[in-house]
Design goal:
Distance between the termini: 47 Å
Number of strands: 0
Shape: elongated
Number of helices: 11
Low-confidence stretches: 70-74
Mean pLDDT: 83
Radius of gyration: 19 Å
Helix content: 55-70%
């Protein structure tokens, strides 16, 4: 039986993750170290290592918190595309009114708390890997079913969709303005049309 996490553990992990998020706003990821995290979280190194293996472990937990991987309502790009008719995904107002269908990364990337994570190139590579690890087993079978592709080809297509849309959103600064919604519609139509063509 798994032991329930106590409040002190949750608190300590929380202050370390908060310290990390505060640091990443002004410090490149590769310059953040355990010493800085301990100083800003006001904990000892021994306490840090009771809860985390290293800075990468902190990052993984922050990313998982940010992307709400434990939330079953968290969408994927496919949910967004197939949740609308072809006409709907061409309409920016439809997306604005149904943001819950957006993939988690697109819902929270421009939030005050997490925006800096998505703007650091080292961290964004890490985010893509976490999304891949968490979503591959649910997205690839759906792609296979919808398109008739083999598993290998469906994985390649998902990787293309994931890396491509992430790169475009990063170039737009993850800001949900009119241009961002227009671009999402363009990407949705492109991906939807490509899958139908296959």
């Amino acid at each position: 039986m798994e032991k329930k996490t106590d409040r002190r553990t949750l608190y300590t992990k929380g202050v370390v993750k908060d310290a990390f998020i505060a640091l990443i706003r002004n410090t490149p990821y590769d310059k953040i170290n355990v010493t800085a995290l301990c100083r800003d979280a006001e904990i000892s190194r021994a306490t840090f290592y009771l809860h985390f293996d290293n800075v990468d472990d902190v990052l993984d937990q922050v990313i998982d918190d940010a992307l709400l991987f434990s939330d079953e309502t968290s969408g994927t790009l496919l949910d967004m595309i197939w949740g609308f008719s072809t006409e709907d995904i061409c309409n920016a107002d439809t997306l604005r009114q149904n943001e819950n269908l957006l993939p988690a990364c697109q819902r929270i990337a421009n939030s005050d708390r997490y925006h800096a994570l998505f703007m650091d190139s080292l961290v964004s590579s890490h985010i893509i890997q976490r999304i891949w690890q968490h979503k591959r087993d649910s997205v690839v079978p759906v792609l296979m079913k919808r398109s008739g592709l083999s598993k290998d080809d469906a994985e390649l297509l998902f990787r293309f969709m994931l890396y491509g849309t992430f790169a475009v959103n990063t170039s737009l600064g993850w800001k949900k303005d009119d241009r961002w919604f227009h671009t999402q519609n363009l990407l949705n139509r492109f991906i939807n049309g490509g899958i139908k063509e296959i």
